[in-house]
Design brief:
About 50% of the residues lie in helices and about 15% in strands. The chain is an alpha/beta fold and about 190 residues long. It has a six-stranded mixed beta sheet with strand order 1-3-2-4-6-5, sandwiched between helices.
């Protein structure tokens, strides 16, 4: 585990050293790299840090993160059991969507993170995360359906924030989330 953490720390240092997205970095409080257990079977990937994440340096600590924690509890997991990160590691100004070139700049580092952790399942949270790995799929059509691609299993889920903005989606997000244990068992 120590080795994995060292490797992750090196990837984090490389992002800074390689000066990835300097315009984003300039206006962000800090790099938000990832959080959780590097030995986890599950990695959750969102799109980019928001205001709370930018301030605390940890992904998913705002309202969407609280909802994520509630859903983890429903499947008997805690934050310490999983690993969580974003595609883009700096907060975009005014919480705008990350631009394609920003996602592309960070993707090799995200792939390196996944290479170190070697999860059994990658849960993509929202369309940006899904489309980074499976660009031809639409979240509205494939949410909750595991997809195998290049040796990894991806589970596309709506972003937890979607359930907060649209109460009608809350149950869909929860139902999709509850499939995680049975997918892990099958792997």
């Amino acid at each position: 585990m120590v080795d994995k953490q060292k490797k992750l720390d090196q990837i984090k240092a490389d992002i800074v050293k390689d000066n990835i997205c300097p315009d984003l970095a300039k206006q962000a409080t800090q790099l938000v790299f990832g959080d959780g257990n590097p030995d986890s079977d599950i990695v959750f990937i969102g799109e980019a840090p928001g205001k709370n994440e930018d301030l605390q340096g940890i992904p998913f600590v705002g309202a969407a993160g609280k909802f994520l924690n509630e859903m983890l509890a429903m499947i008997d997991l805690k934050r310490e059991d999983i690993y969580i990160t974003n595609i883009v590691k700096y907060r975009p100004p005014d919480n705008r969507d990350p631009f394609d070139d920003e996602k592309a700049a960070f993707l090799p580092y995200l792939q390196a993170q996944l290479g170190v952790i070697q999860p059994k399942i990658v849960v993509t949270l929202g369309r940006h995360s899904l489309n980074c790995f499976l660009p031809d799929l639409q979240i509205s059509k494939v949410h909750g359906q595991p997809k195998r691609y290049k040796g990894l299993v991806y589970l596309p889920l709506f972003h937890p924030a979607a359930a907060l903005y649209n109460g009608g989606m809350r149950q869909t997000v929860i139902d999709d989330f509850l499939t995680i244990p049975s997918i892990l068992k099958q792997l």
